[in-house]
Amino acid sequence: MNIRKTIDKLKKPFNKGEKWERLAPAFNALDTFLFVPKHTTKYGAHIRDAVDLKRTMITVIIALLPALFYGIYNTGYQYYSQLDLEYNTLDLFIHGSLKIVPMIAVSYIVGLAIEFAFAVFRGHEVNEGYLVTGLLIPMIMPVDIPLWMVGLSVAFAVIIGKEAFGGTGMNILNPALTARAFAFFAYPTYMSGNQVWVSEASNIDGVSGETILGVLASGESSLNYDPLQMFMGSIPGSIAETSTLMVIIGAFILIYTGVGSWRIMVSGVIGAAIMGLLFNLWGANELMSFSWINQMMVGGFAFGIVFMATDPVSATQTVKGKWIYGFLIGIFCILIRVFNPAYPEGVMLAILLMNVFAPTIDHYVIEANIKRRKKRMIKTALNIA
Amino acid sequence: MSNDIRIKNGLTINLKGAAKNIVKNAPYPKSISLNPSDFHLIIPKMVVKIDQKINIGDVIFYSKKDERIKFCSPVDGTIREIVRGAKRKIIEIIIDVDKNQKNVEPKIIDFEILNEKEIKNFILNSGCWPFIKQRPYDIIANPSDKPKSIFVSTFNSAPISADFQIILDDQKEEFKTGLKVLSKLTDGEINICVKKDIPTFINKINNIKVHFVSGPHPSGNVGVQIHHINPINQGERVWILGPEDVAILGRLFLKGTYNPIRTLAISGAPVKNPQYYKTIVGSELSEIINDAGIDLNDSLRIINGDVLSGVKVEPDNYIGFYNNTVSVLREGNNYRMFGWVPFINNEVPSIYKTSFSWLFPNKKYDLDTNLNGEERAFVVTGEMEKVFPMDIFPMQLLKECMVGNIDKMENLGIYEVAPEDFSLIDYSSSSKIEAQYIIRKGLDLMIEEVG
Questions:
Q1: Has residue A275 got a pLDDT over 60?
Q2: Predicted TM-score of the model (pTM)
Q3: CA distance A85 to A78
Q4: Which residues in chain B have their CB less than 8 angstroms from residue A39's CB?
Q5: Minimum CA–CA partner of B434 in chain A
Q6: Nearest neighbour of A48 by CB, restricted to B303, B372, B413
Q7: I need a surface site. Which of A99, B22, B74, B222 has the fewest CB within 10 A?
Q8: B349/A50 CB distance under 8 A
Q9: Which helix or strand (DSSP H or E) is residue A36 part of?
Q10: Which of B13, B327, B331 is the closest to A40 by Cβ?
Q11: Could you read off the pLDDT of B57-71 as tens digits, one per residue?
């Protein structure tokens, strides 16, 4: 336990009554990262489950890793294949890493700095929620977005989207999507169009890096991609959203460990499938007649419904509420895609919209429970009378 | 008449050290104590002084709010000490037990000829009344109330807790008599919940309603059973008793004296001989735990009650008024490097499959008291419902209790819950929310504001 002794020695100035007492949350965050603390139960149950928020969050990160690695690979692949350059697999990963690792670093540095500052300022421990948010934000950005924009979006999401509401657990909107929405509306030229989805596309002529939904929205029907590519993910798009397969692996991890809500995922898929089928029957334009199965494989739908919609803080909290919430996200996602060509990707707005309505959905689910209780009371009273 | 109730949501935690089916007579205690903290919200008004001689059944103190509720000595002895805390609050009353207990001639009380009021008065004056508790609020029943029904849960589902089949084995007559007495106190039903598929003498008793309950913990919690059988509405009162407390009540009418025998299961992995001891309510712990074999040099936690809802005590303390279990756990005041990483430290089970524990559903664990994390904000949803088998939204109710919104608490079902029903939420919460503590505060607020 030598490391432990060293840490205890370093920790001394942060203890109660010592000179750096106020900075204790920052030190504790690092300390508890290394060691599960020796706190024992004081009130209530004397034994506790092994799970804590750190473990929950790290499980989500593990579930994100397949999509992240594929995103790194695909960034390289899109670049080399669109430019018709010679490459081997290692080149792809090197190119992707050079693009994406700095984004992740910026996201974590800016976000955690703000989180630590708020923890010290408010005198509470650092919550682990940002570990996931900080990885999600770069994963849903276009690859060529400047690093300072990533930093600014992160700052906006953490300060306005989360801390302004009281911090972890209190926010209305999903912080990662708040960051993306901020960038989307503040810097639209970097966030949509034909030239942001493949790295260096804006600097080099002859690259057609349009996303499939972008192509369809512009009314063209000639797609260069087959469904297998859509499923595997070798298509242009935001960094880690493209591979449906990798997202499904992540979903499997989340559902299997019990960390993510399968109800939201399943109902979301049902909602999107129904809406997609209805539009297939209607078939008035390219987007409408785009097969409902393919609808779910392109764009950010799969990634969003698995990793964004299931964020427990911004989603509905009741079991019934989760079914309704997921279903409506599926419906709205396809609806926005089809009816608003200005936003060819609907999942971000669909989730943010339902984030806002989640408390309302819960309210009605809970009201039903309350009504049941009141009815029972009246019934008993009548029986006695 | 009987009914089946199946509890689906819940959790069975397999722990090592369940008490074996051996009942020993504990040595007669040298001292016993009455601890007012066992009687929630009761403010004691002392009747005796230090060094005063007392006999079995003599009143030690009564409730300041309701003088009818008396707390009596279970032994002949001398008051040794009245321990007081801040603001002269009475913490504990310790009685030295006389070596030679006087023989009291048994006399049967014919309760059939007594009316409700006379029975109540007899119970109140004997010192047995505190065994009758009420829901809502989980406090000692108000003698002026007429309960809608009376419930007795005859099994424990908490990990390594006492088995009432063993405890009641030689107290069947007392138990039956106790039930008959209770049936005089209510116009409603006497509901007894037994574990399904376990043969028992209970379903052969007349004039009671037997319910067969199956499923994981907290299926043995009386609050859960009430919720599924005859839920409590606003303004209603249900009385509850522990099974051995029913037997104590029965003995009062069979023998005519207050004789609170307590059969105690000493359990837990650090106990060398986990088994049962027959002793008296409030006895000193030390002799019993010495006999069961506990190494006091180890860093251990001794708990009056089960590991999920009991109260921490020291080895030189006394057993509580209500508990049939004394659990012993190792203290978990040690660091675990990177212990939060999934699939590390698999010796700690988890309701999430982030520990390999789910591969071995029948494995028994030796858990310590480590919190396994730190308290955080509410983040994960849905985990509380998994271990809370009531038609109540536990997280929403907890949040309303935290802000003290009485209307909402009432609407969300505060009258139907007791802290122990939230013990598994304590256990499984990933944010380490102290749910039992919050619910107790919420209930106390309701008592203060609504009554």
A1: yes
A2: 0.92
A3: 10
A4: 333, 370-371, 374
A5: A44
A6: B372
A7: B22
A8: yes
A9: strand A35-36
A10: B331
A11: 999 999 999 999 999
Nearest to A47 among B337, B369, B419 (CB): B369
Nearest of A212, A214, A132 to residue A179 by alpha carbon: A132
Measured between beta carbons, the chain A residues lying within 8 angstroms of B9 are none
Question: How far B287 CA sits from the closest chain A CA (Å)?
Answer: 24
Pairing of strands B77-84, B90-97: antiparallel
Q: Within the 11-50 window of chain A, which residues sit less than 8 Å (CB to CB) from chain B?
A: 32, 34-50
Task: Give the largest Cα separation in chain B, rounded.
Answer: 69
Minimum Cα–Cα distance from A8: chain B residue: B335
CA distance B197 to chain A (A): 29
**What digits encode the pLDDT tens for the residues B92-143?**
999 999 998 888 888 888 888 999 999 999 999 999 999 999 999 999 999 9
The reply to whether residue A312 touches residue B381, judged by beta carbons under 8 angstroms, is: yes
Task: Answer for the pair B104, B58: CB distance below 8 angstroms, yes or no.
Answer: no
Distance from the B122 Cα atom to the nearest Cα atom in chain A, whole angstroms: 30
Of B335, B339, B411, the CB nearest to A370: B411
Question: In this model, does residue B1 exceed pLDDT 60?
Answer: no
| Chain A, chain B: beta-carbon pairs less than 8 Å apart | 223
**Best mutation target, A3, A4, A46, A377, to test chain B (most B CBs within 10 A):** A46
pLDDT computed for residue A360 by the predictor: 96
Q: How far is B192 from chain A (nearest CA, A)?
A: 21
Q: Does A384 touch chain B (CB under 8 A)?
A: no
- pLDDT-derived band of residue A385, with 50, 70 and 90 as boundaries? low
Radius of gyration in angstroms for the set of CA atoms belonging to chain A, rounded to a whole number? 23
User: From B304, which residue of chain A is nearest by alpha-carbon distance?
Assistant: A46
- B254-260 mean pLDDT: 91
User: What's the pLDDT score for residue A29?
Assistant: 84
| pLDDT for res A206 | 64
- Mapped onto helix, strand or coil, the DSSP state of residue A226 is coil
| Sequence-distant contacts of B77-82: CB under 8 A, at least 24 apart | B77/B31, B77/B32, B77/B53, B78/B51, B78/B52, B78/B53, B78/B54, B79/B48, B79/B49, B79/B50, B79/B51, B79/B52, B79/B54, B80/B31, B80/B50, B81/B50, B82/B46, B82/B50
Does A37 sit within 8 Å of B335, measured CB to CB?
yes
Rounded Cα–Cα distance for residues B33 and B82 (Å): 10
Please report the residues numbered 60 through 79 in chain A whose beta carbons come closer than 8 angstroms to any beta carbon of chain B: 62
Question: A113-123: per-residue pLDDT in tens?
Answer: 999 999 988 88
For residue B235, give the amino acid letter.
G
pLDDT tens readout for residues A322-365: 999 999 999 999 999 888 877 777 899 999 999 999 999 999 99
Averaged pLDDT, A145-152: 95
Q: How far is B13 from chain A (nearest CA, A)?
A: 10
Torsional class of B63: left (φ above 0), alpha (ψ -120 to 50), beta (otherwise): beta
Q: Do B234 and A256 touch (CB under 8 A)?
A: no
CA dihedral B42, B47, B49, B51 (to 10 degrees): -100
pLDDT in tens, B196-232: 888 888 877 878 899 999 999 999 999 999 999 999 9
Cβ within 8 Å, pair B411-A4: no
